[in-house]
């Protein structure tokens, strides 16, 4: 388990510089049975990184539990988006479902209405949120606006300063097919679906 990310220097075994030393010591103590060590808002990120690197499953679980329940920002929308992305990247489906449910049932409107939150989400996570059957939003237009805003940000990540409508629609892709259009009043929907409506829907 501890065969990687080490190097020898002057006959001594040292930790690779890309590993946080304090977090590595935390992991060693945890593996030795010191389960009562306390995570905090700052250290949990690097502890999780090291725990994932060495696949210490119990510590990974403890980190995600802390991020969703014990962290000082666990009730903030952007924090939940960051954690959702982590669960996706680290292939933790159980924690991903829990985090997605927290967002969809408690923070959906804040996430969908915030550029900074949407910026944290990859396509897969954005799609999962838009598809969530238990998502609580008062106005489905917010979902549609969020889709176009996310698509614009995705284009700009690729360094496209000026985004064409065709590029914006390609970026949005199948996200637009999961908006619940029938819950939007007909007249409002007609205006929203005009040929040039997409760019006008951008959040913020």
UniProtKB/TrEMBL annotation:
GO terms for biological process: neurogenesis. GO terms for cellular component: cytosol. Residues 81-194 form the BACK domain. Pfam families: BTB. It comes from the Eukaryota. This is BACK domain-containing protein. It comes from Pomacea canaliculata.
